[in-house]
Design a protein that fits this description.
6 strands; 3-stranded antiparallel beta sheet; 3-stranded mixed beta sheet; 7 helices
């Protein structure tokens, strides 16, 4: 009863250096040994070498992973952008057999003279309105998912592009007609 309980983990750590120690058997000490003075090294519990490894690993801070950031002037992956888009619907039937519409959003894609088909994204709503007109339907989305989604189609995203002045694609009358058709 005079010997403190020891973790078996210490036994494995003690043998890791190749030196066998026989002091891992817990038995009651002889009565005569209880009256003998205990050496100071026997009074202090030994430290596990496992803690030394943990402390050494904690002292070394891992280097953060290098992630490529956006180019100067390009918004971050999670940045909100305003994209020309409009609602669409596809006719179907509901479980009772009645006609129904399934709504979804379609990004508008544009032809570029050198880059083929592109999606346009604007970092401000004012930028979208200035470039494409007040009647242009739009959605707000994150740049990253937009780029990944259209990238699968071989389409690139142009952020804050310069648009030559001209007649906007959408006029107020076009928007009103589209709204009437969607309500049917």
């Amino acid at each position: 009863m005079g010997i403190p309980n020891r973790s078996r983990l210490l036994d494995y750590a003690d043998h890791a250096d190749g030196v066998d120690r026989v002091d891992c058997v817990e038995t009651e000490p002889p009565v005569a040994a209880a009256s003998a003075p205990v050496p100071p090294s026997a009074q202090e519990p030994r430290r596990s070498r496992l803690l030394e490894y943990v402390e050494a690993d904690a002292a070394v801070e891992p280097e953060p992973p290098v992630r490529p950031g956006p180019r100067p002037g390009v918004p971050a992956y999670h940045a909100t952008v305003f994209v020309p888009a409009h609602p669409r619907h596809t006719p179907t039937t509901d479980p009772t057999g009645a006609p129904a519409l399934i709504p979804f959003i379609t990004y508008e894609l544009f032809e570029h003279p050198t880059d083929g088909t592109v999606a346009l994204a604007f970092t401000t709503l004012d930028g979208l309105v200035a470039a494409l007109g007040e009647a242009q339907p739009w959605v707000a989305t994150s740049l990253g998912p937009l780029a990944e989604g259209v990238g699968e189609l071989g389409v690139t995203v142009h952020v804050d592009p310069w648009i030559a002045p001209g007649r906007p694609n959408w006029q107020p009358a076009d928007l009103a007609a589209f709204a009437r058709e969607a309500r049917r």
